[in-house]
Amino acid sequence: MARVPRTRVPIPEKPVRFMHKLRAFIRSRGLSVSTEGHYCRWIKRFIKYHSFNDPSEMMPKHVEQYLHHMVVVDEVTTNTQKAALNALAFLFNQFLGRPLGQIRVTKSKRRRKVPVVLSHHEALSLIAALASPWRLVAQLMYGSGLRINEALSLRINHIDFSGGLIVVNAGKGGKDRVTLLPESLIPSLEQQICMVQALHSADSRRGLGRTYIAGGKHSPTKSRAKQLGWQFLFPARSISFDVQKQVPVRYHLSDAAMSTQLKHATRSLGLTKNATPHTFRHSFATRLLESGQSIRVIQELLGHANVSTTEIYTHVLHKHGLDIASPLDAL
């Protein structure tokens, strides 16, 4: 039985070491496994840069020095520098309780690459070349602007058929948001939910039926693990083992498998563009801009913290729209 993919690093119940305490604090804030990993990697690099000195004895100037080093020596992009700053801001502002305040940041001069975008025809052709359930995953990324892990982490109760919405729970940065539910996907989603229900019933009859939910062994979310509404919309084909809770669980499909399926489909179509799962999200934003939607609306749908991130798709602001149609419905 395989372990839960991307499971959290085990920590003692009463952590003593600095990184164990940090991880325990991150988990107490309900941040995702991915966010925990990113924060801890940047904080480790920061500590290593300062010769493994105790972060609790460091000052804002030490953060400035590290960010300056990243730009001048490592020549990182602006986004990479921002990712490090976000992790260090969490370290000082929340974990250590010592706000950084205004710090001087040497800005990167490396320009962001223009994202690869598929035409509507290319996107639909690539989606059609995928087998089930990967096709539905791609349709959600293109039709709703989801990141790959947001799509794979969807649970049944995240699909709001009556409201025509998809709830993205704990997306990037631990933020929740809502986005479009393409009307054309409702039959496929209903069929997928029926499949999950049948699989969950079969698992339950075998004494299983638990899904993976982050949290400790005695987490209050433990009871949700067996409820149908909390099952992943795209469950893994096999049962995994949650080392932290010491129970068998059914996780969701892996992003690596999705990337492999997409790579095969791209080659089969002879597409010369370097299409990745994130390309569907780029294409979603571009379609909405082309249709005249407000960049602020698109920012909300994508879950971007800063509108400048959304503006990479265009330098021209379009008029505000009232009704928003998913690009998947624009046939």
UniProtKB/TrEMBL annotation:
One of its GO terms (biological process) is DNA integration. It comes from Arenicella xantha. It comes from the Bacteria. SUPFAM superfamilies: DNA breaking-rejoining enzymes (SSF56349). Pfam families: Phage_int_SAM_4 (PF13495), Phage_integrase (PF00589). Residues 113-326 form the Tyr recombinase domain. Residues 16-96 form the Core-binding (CB) domain. This is Integron integrase. Belongs to the 'phage' integrase family. InterPro entries: CB, DNA_brk_join_enz, Integrase-like_cat_sf, Integrase_catalytic, Integrase_integron-type, Integrase_recombinase_N, Integrase_SAM-like_N, Tyrosine_recombinase_XerCD. One of its GO terms (molecular function) is DNA binding. Gene3D superfamilies: 1.10.150.130, Intergrase catalytic core (1.10.443.10). Keywords: DNA integration, DNA recombination, DNA-binding.
